Amino acid sequence: MTRTGPAWRIAAAGLLIGAAGAAADERPATIPTRDVDVTYATLAPNGAVLLQQRMRWSASARLVRLDPPSRDLYFVMDLQNHLLDTIRPSNRAVLETNAPGAGLVPGVAAQTSFARKGPATVAGVACTEWETVDAAGRPALACLTEDGVLLRAQAGGQTLVEARSVHYGPIDKGVFAIPPDYTKLTPPTAPPQSAPAQ
User: Fold this and answer.
1) Do 133 and 122 touch, CB atoms closer than 8 A?
2) How many CA atoms lie within 13 A of 119 on its CB side?
3) DSSP labels for the chain?
4) Among 31, 134, 167, 186, which has the highest number of CB atoms less than 10 A from its own CB?
5) How does pLDDT run across 32-50, given as a tens digit for each residue?
6) What percentage of the chain exceeds 90 in pLDDT?
7) Exposure of 127 by Cβ count < 10 A (0-12 exposed, 13-18 middle, 19+ buried)?
8) Distance set, CA 30 to CA 1, 76, 147, 148, 184 (Å)
9) Distance, CA of 98 to chain centre
10) What is the C-alpha to C-alpha distance for residues 163 and 7, in angstroms, rounded to an integer?
11) Are the C-beta atoms of 65 and 176 separated by less than 8 Å?
């Protein structure tokens, strides 16, 4: 797996988990309603930290920036326009692709329901545990704040992602801006498939 894989999973989990309409009458907020700066840890099955990543969210602009451990890579997602930019400062380049629609979380069914389980505290911040299921129908837990910030994601009895620090406050819009002199790359297209021989 590349280093961008865990980064994308955190972004997706933090922003899009269950964002499509769910069947349950009661459901949590799943998109932050306030500006927030969160540092997440991705954990191994034994609880060891695999890596830490920073996510900054602008509620008014519906933008998120994700900084993985690599200093030469970061992501900016625009939920309003369904775009994902992958930026590499060393190359002064940005690759723009379509972001998945709301609810398209790796491993989580788009139309899943949620069931409230109880209160918890993660990184000193109160959240509520919500039981849901992954795309394979297995139980999963998401601990979400009242204002829609994911603090912990668990599946199969294992903590996958957990917040280590949470800071609320205005986020400078400049952190989401793409430098105007960066080269915009286009994603490679798959070659057309030839028709089967008759």
Assistant:
1) no
2) 5
3) --THHHHHHHHHHHHHTT-SPPSSSS----S-SS-EEEEEEEE-TTS-EEEEEEEEEETTTTEEEEE-S-TT-EEEEETTTTEEEEEETTTTEEEEEEPPPTT-BTTB-TT---EEEEEEEETTEEEEEEEEEBTTS-EEEEEE-TTS-EEEEEETTEEEEEEEEEEESPPPGGGGPPPTTSEEE-PPPPPPPPPPP-
4) 31
5) 999 999 999 998 988 899 9
6) 55
7) buried
8) 27, 19, 8, 5, 31
9) 15
10) 14
11) yes
- Inform me whether the pLDDT recorded for 13 exceeds 80: no
CATH 2.50.20.10, applies to 4-185: yes
Beta bridge partners, 154, equal: 141, 159
Phi, psi of 176 (to 5 degrees): -100, -10
Dihedral pair phi/psi, residue 37, rounded to 5°: -125, 115
The average pLDDT across 117-132 equals 95
Q: Domain residue spans in the chain?
A: 4-185
- pLDDT (0 to 100) of residue 195: 57
Pairing outcome for strands 74-78 and 83-88: antiparallel
